[in-house]
What does this fold into?
Amino acid sequence: MSFECMRRDEFERVAMPHTQSLLQAAQRLSRARAVAEDMVQETLLHAWNAFDRFERGTNCKAWLFRILINVSRQYHRKNQARPVTLPLDSGGSQKVVQLYVAPPQFATAEVLSALNMLSIDHRLVLMLAVVEGFTCKEIAAMCALPVGTVMSRLSRARAELRHILTEAEGSKRLAANAG
Amino acid sequence: MNCNEAKYVMPLYLSGELDAKSMSDFELHLDQCVLCHREIEEQRAYDNLLRACFVSEQLDVRNLRARVWNRIMTSDRGTLFFRRPARLVAIAAMLLLAVCTGIVYLSVRSKSVATVYADAVDDHYEEVVQRTPLSGWRTDLDMLGQRQLGDSEIINKLGPAGYQLVRARVCELGGELYVHAEYKNEKGEISIFIKRRSGDLPGAAKDVVNGCPIHVETTRGFQVAGFQTEQFTVLIVSDLPSTENFRLARESASRVA
It folds into this structure.
């Protein structure tokens, strides 16, 4: 088997299985399937060109996500789209406390829609931590941020997402009562 | 651990990055604080909700993967050659060989340049200036000219005006046989080295007289001026000023060309 065939086989075995995860994250970052596919394609091409420099035995998924984040930043720099950010409700400690409130049932579309309303920085850390299972330390390395920044972004992102979904649930209830 | 500290480390707790001591402190706080307990449970629940959305979201990536491979194959056609280590090594070896050959060629060439002029100067210095006693000096110069150069007149004809031919002998410069002729006037001696032409004199010509390119060189304080006719290669060596030595070469060239 030639060197090039071996290289392709290894790339197919090590990198290509992460295409779906990359596409899911790219869709959440770009909010558009076509753009997400372009971003993933570019990510994998970058990875292929730099595959000789990839350290065998290290986390290929983390390496690919690091490339995706750089590609995503380039896309967003081009588009300069302002993300939607919502103010956080403060003073929660003054409310009546229930020991544990199970989240209501949400449709996938509702959750994804709420996720899309977060700023791109918050969406990114939430995706990487919750969906992809990266640690704060890994995310910090990928995004070239201090771990403390990742932790605070993650806390805010979780709080924002919960806030948006709770608001949406409240509106739904009001509409149902009115009906 | 207080509530603020607990909230700060919640992301690390959820990602399993807390060390044993911090984990123990955090869980102790959760047992004592209803607000933080509720907060962490809700965070965990919403995380699960979000994760479930993505698990259920099955994306068809076959077309995308095919597109990527297509792009990789297309881009590889242009760069494949340079990625193969064996070919790279072969190219590097060929380049190295070419460079080495060039270096050797240039050094040999420059050495032969130095040799022919340096040998002429050495012979002039030892045999004419120092008068080192050597055998082989001849005075039957017509016969020597005829036998070595195929022209019995040439040694006489090359002598510049005012110079008298003294003697001559066969010598070797840069691996080739020359006739070394000594001329003198009232001011001193000069040497003229002559051989049948075979190849060009090294270096760039300073002037051309009657179609003869004239080369000049300064070595160890002596002046060398060389020229070539169709039949002969001639070197004039002296300790005269370079312009004077050059003038002698022009004069000889105009006479024999």
